[in-house]
Fold this protein.
Amino acid sequence: VNCKTILLEGPTFQNSPGWCIHPVMCADLTVNEISVKNPWYAQNGDGIDVESCTNVVITNSRFDVGDDAICLKSGKDEEGRERGIPTRNVEVNNCIVHHGHGGFVVGSEMSGGVKDIWVSNCTFVGTDVGLRFKSTRGRGGVVENIHIENIRMIDIARDAVIFNLFYQGLAPTEVSNDPEQEFNSQVPAVSEETPEFRNILLKNIYCSGADRAVNIMGLPEMPVQNIRIESSVFKSKKGIYCFFAKTFELDDVTVITEDNPTINLVNVVGMEARSITGNNKTLIKMRGPETSNILIRTEDENLVREKIVAGDEIDPGEIKITGI
């Protein structure tokens, strides 16, 4: 706690009763070539939780844990906002996660903010989720400027990528048979307790086996903003689900799924898709009265047009299909 210039290199940390490694309000932390092992059943048996720290490097390390493996936090709710110390300037490179609730995770205690993060060249094998972003109303805080690339995932139990702004609450699909209407009728005002996730790039993501490729669940009052996925391949049972987002971009993304549709958009404002490949009859299904400003760039405009389904509440003029 409140330390500077720290090096953890070489040892194995294992069998903690809770979070295994937990630096708080530290600066200039280097973690290299460590192993972290907790039983798969360890409740809150996280690997490393970096909280409100600056200038952090985590490299060449292995994690096999009972909860989140590599996790960034910055305090919970009012306490975290009053502290006001974000976790920032973090590099995670060349790490392997064998088990855990999430491979690389942000939140849910991110009330002081998380920003300027670079994650690359990591492998997740058999984790519940690969890339996990989580928060909920009441947290507040801003998560922004995150660059993730060259990630390999194998046999992910649930979502390869998830943004869940309903953590520890009811997900949109659990509320009613018409979650868009239900949530639009109960939208609170934006305040310091409203969490924000924005400006996040996922590049060169390869997932071989997952229940769902991508699951984005933003808040009606604060959609997830500026999420871009490019040059990536997902092989999963279900495809991409995006609920309440602004400026969602897909560029050169292949999604091979068992279930239809490949991409499901609900109340998404500003979506651009370029060179999207899917194996289903329906490439994109759109719903929600707020869905608008949809641009699809493709080499075969007629074929893609046939594979798009839009709800009656969506103005056809909001959907544009053009060549590349």
Notes: Residues 77-83 form the longest helix (7 residues). The two ends are 52 Å apart (CA to CA). Residues 42 and 128 are 14 Å apart (CA to CA).
